[in-house]
């Protein structure tokens, strides 16, 4: 499918993308749909509310653990810029600049 | 969930999705949000679009990265663009192209998409107190363009009491335009650029998640669930195949939070 060029659409790939779309749409509308029909206890709500942050950490932990000092240092730069400026674009540029710099030094 | 809004986080230290202290949970008339009027119109779409535009440009940086990674994984520019236009879920798309090998692991791809996007259910549910008052077409239509960034902006907007019901839709349109446009740029350039590590492109995913973590950090109450998620994920990545460590880490943290709710 690579050789077919930039505009190629492989039927299997399109099928997988459609399946991803269906699953994603279900997650996007499903929670709201369910909430209108069932009562969620405060206890369950407290548990559900930590999920987004916890999933971010669950992705990030192994990702950073697999890296080295250059990645850890650059992650520190992202935290610092984000914490000080709350500007995601600035934080991303800082982090990517830092990782390129630290890798060159290392 | 409420921690993206500092002032609310102070009042609502237990991190509830809904503010339910005003009355019985089964009486929606008693909640504070019911009293303000909610509109759904052009003005709200416009406000959402303009407020989100700087953030959407940041998302665009991430879209360029996705386009490059997708191209290197063997997707064509058209396929990468189609995925961005219909799936509209950055983290899932970037993780999925890492799984993209011949023959395509279809089940792993779809299940990973589900696992990573399950959080959208919670985010959509958190919009419930306001979206319940919109028509089904307005609410479900808006939810289709929900992403992490515009959800956070919309929660802040609606909690401020502006009553702009179309804010999620407007901000989502800004995200969609930047996300799809950036994917085309990245995928086109991705065929030209050689090694992504040379430009630090491979670090974009980690950088985005670090930035998201800083935004989601809510002080002490966040510490225990995050540590549980971290330890579980690092243990699971060694012992469990595939990307299941992501879902396991999240579920372990949620379970611990449910157990220690009373304390």
TrEMBL record, chain A:
Q: Where are the transmembrane segments?
A: 12-35, 47-68, 88-105
Keywords per UniProt: Membrane, Transmembrane, Transmembrane helix
Entry protein name: Branched-chain amino acid transport
This protein's record includes keyword Membrane: yes
Q: What's the superkingdom here?
A: Archaea
User: Which Pfam families did the record assign?
Assistant: AzlD
UniProtKB/TrEMBL annotation, chain B:
Its keywords, alphabetically, are: Cell membrane, Membrane, Transmembrane, Transmembrane helix, Transport
- Membrane topology recorded in Swiss-Prot or TrEMBL: Multi-pass membrane protein
Residue ranges of the TM segments: 47-70, 82-100, 106-131, 165-193, 199-217, 224-246
* Sequence ranges of Basic and acidic residues compositional bias: 1-21
Q: Where in the cell is it found?
A: Cell membrane
Quick one: where's region Disordered? 1-30
GO BP term, pick one = L-valine transmembrane transport
Pfam families attached to this UniProt entry: AzlC
Report if keyword Protein biosynthesis is assigned. no
Output the Gene Ontology cellular-component terms. Answer: plasma membrane
Q: What's the chief localization of this chain? A: membrane
Q: Could you tell me the superkingdom of the organism this chain comes from?
A: Archaea
- What family name appears in the similarity comment? Belongs to the AzlC family.
> Can you name this protein?
AzlC family protein
Q: Which species?
A: Natrinema limicola JCM 13563
